[in-house]
Amino acid sequence: MRVALFVTCLVDLFRPSVGFASVRLLERLGAEVVVPPEQTCCGQPAYNNGDFETARAIARQVIAAFEGVDHVVVPSGSCAGMLVRHYPELFRDEPETLARAQSLAARTRELSAFLAEFGGEPVIDAHFTGKVAMHDSCSARRELGIHAAPRALLGKLAGVEPVELKDAEVCCGFGGTFCVKYPDISARMVSDKAAAVTASGADVLVSGDLGCLMNIAGRLKRMDSPVRVYHLAELLASMTDAPGIGDGTQT
Questions:
Q1: Does one domain contain both 7 and 112?
Q2: pLDDT tens digits, one per residue of 52-85
Q3: How many angstroms separate the CA atoms of 240 and 17, rounded?
Q4: Which structural domain range is residue 98 located in?
Q5: 106 and 145 belong to one structural domain
Q6: pLDDT digits (tens, 9 = 90+) for 205-232
Q7: Does residue 111 share a domain with residue 11?
Q8: Is residue 250 part of a domain?
Q9: Where do runs of H (alpha helix) occur along the chain?
Q10: CA–CA dist 30, 198 (Å, integer)
Q11: Which of 47, 82, 84, 236 could bridge to 42 as Cys pair (CB 3.0-4.6 Å)?
């Protein structure tokens, strides 16, 4: 099967290792992985701020870039949610483009959901010793209904002791531009989330969304917490030798 990776802006600019880890996992699954060079931002910042004209212009480019592949995989529930849920909304009054948007939506999966759906669990042969907590992004959990898949994959790692966070379903406070528009509320939310991570006794925090992870990692660092932070793909692909998110100059 031919699989295109939607890299996402945050992975491209801040954490390329997530993209490389995603490719490694998909290739282990037997996929032919392509990364369309003409891909751009998914358009979510414009969409969330009501600039639908710009969002549509970006969406048209993304739709064109990802035609001709069997599947589109995204290491982000947030960006995957944009392609799956909101692209068809943007073009509901343009029948021809709507059909193309719906085709893209039908072929798009968040990374952990894709691995679970297409039998990726047997190819997970990584080993990681320690307690690992999972953060569910709002987009993955609420828009796409993803909850069990990443935990099932995490459970395949030898040496991992999964731990659940208190109030795991609560937002971390990032929310794209939410953290800019409502900084005081956002700061309180991420402080509560970081406190829950620390209280869980986890050695490592993982998630499928880099935006959430950067937000939480920043707060943990300011709290002098020893908890390391990685994208789920990095853990599954045995790519945790590099500094975690928020360590060193990562954020």
A1: yes
A2: 999 999 999 999 999 999 999 999 999 999 999 9
A3: 9
A4: 2-116
A5: no
A6: 999 999 999 999 999 999 999 999 999 9
A7: yes
A8: no
A9: 9-14, 16-28, 44-48, 52-65, 77-81, 87-90, 95-107, 111-117, 138, 148-154, 178-181, 183-199, 210-222, 232-236
A10: 38
A11: 82
